[in-house]
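Incident review: delayed structure delivery

Summary: a single-chain prediction request sat in the queue longer than the usual turnaround. Root cause was a stuck worker, restarted by the on-call engineer. No data loss occurred. The affected request and its eventual output are reproduced below so the record is complete for anyone auditing the incident later.

Affected input:
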Amino acid sequence: MFGKIKYISDNKAIVEINKEGNVISNLMNLHVVFENENSKILGEVKLVDEEVITIELLGEFINNKFIPGTIKKPTLNSTIRVINPDELQIIMGSPDYNSLYIGKSPIYNEQNIYVKINDLFSNHLAIFGNSGSGKSCSVSRIIQNIFLNKNFLSYNANLFIFDAYGEYKNAFKTISQINPNYQYKFITTNITEETDKLLKIPPYLLTVDDFALLLNADNHAQITILERSLKLSKLFSQKNEQVEKLKDHLIAKAIQSVLFSNQNASGKKNDIFTIISSCSTENFNLNADIQGVGFTRKFAECFKIDSKGEFSESVLINEYLAKHIDDTLEQSISISQDAYFTLKDFAAALDFTLIGEGFLSNHIMQDSAIILKVRLNTIINSKNEKIFNLDRYISLEQYISSLIINDNKRCQIININLEDIDDNLAKVIVKIISKMIFDFGKGRKVRAAIPFHLIIEEAHRYVTNDNDKFLLGYNIFERIAKEGRKYGVILDLISQRPVDISETVVAQMSNFLVLKMTHPRDIEYIEKMLPNISSDIIEKLSSLQPGTLVSFGSAFKIPLLIKMDLPNPLPYSSNCDILQRWKAN
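Output delivered after worker restart:
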């Protein structure tokens, strides 16, 4: 079949067809070996015409190991033969303790393909493909294979699936039937079954950055407001006499600054009553009693304007304010590490922030703050408020544990369903939970002792080039992509539009499973972002069958075509059965 070698370049060899020899009916994508006394070079058939065969050089077999790369070239007198079973097993892996079954080869009689668990799962992974190409089925099958692996009990796995459409519930709900040590947890914003768990996010564990994302902040003035509000929320959570005095101090300082302003009495009165309406205490409300010498006035009565355009009880007001001002109070109250507060408490702290010095008369700050207040109150008054409503304090470690534990059993698959909330809130929730997991991973004494996989479905909706880098100085997915592997936090992205995903994140992916892709922009993007990808792989992407993918990256010795098995059970990802739905009963 193979004749003389006519030409060898950096990564290709042109070989004559020996028409007198044994004929192999289908040469395309077949692997061949150039063998001589000193070397065995692996190549793949890329082009066949009537006279010659074009073979791409892939690497070299040395001592029963495959070394990718084409530093050494075959000689012109090398013997050319089809790869043998032993060499094929080196390329496609074997079923040992360290390996996981992925799928079958459509080229070599459906031979099983295995990858080293560490090579695939200790690095970031991207799964790309058109709608209907088999992404959800491929992801489901790979995860099912993890737990079907009889060589290995993956009890300590932590697979967090951010499920945009609730597709994976059916695929994993029977995992305990494989082994009773395996458990599955479905967390959702809309409970429909008894086994569903309501998604909860503790507001008191959120950082300034988290609140900035939650409230869609868009300028640095809002960050300053949120920092102050978060500090006051933690101070006010203690609910003791010192805290009540601090509230009185803040209100008194705000009223005093209004009194010292250059407004007329009517304008001052309006501002003071606005302060009292948004922030009030037992000592500062419209009906509070203010004791004078031999008489008592209600707080509101002190601001009657006399014929001279002044407050009739200005002396009494100033004396009352002076009694409640203590600039040392805030520094004397320590912030508790386990401060508990709700979103409503945060909204109250935001009101106190806005009457504070530097905020009250600053129109830019006030405008920025109103936007935050509106967005915060929108969440508080919506059905999504229940997501942030917890009745007790738990630490970050306890919160992460609560996500993993279900009915006192450890869960390996945690499916967070986001189909019932809008895209903006869903993106924020994915970012917040991912950041919490990353912070938890960074805080472990033993680095990467507890690995987490963040499997993000519809990644083009969440892992994007947002305003985060301008506002916060970083994007959490880019940070995880760059640093996460050191702490055992791994990204697994699933998307039909890779062009919409952050380039920084895609550039950090080590392994790729690419199903059929036809959109020119996406194909061009993959070719541009992955400099080591060959033109042959790019050509294959538009002609793949559903459920067949091209795999390449650090877990694969060479790019391989893999035919995925159907998952059992299937995810909820199939098309609507129009014929059945249209049919009359």
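Verification: The chain has three domains: 2-92, 101-202+394-582, 208-383.
Action items: add queue-age alerting; document worker restart procedure.
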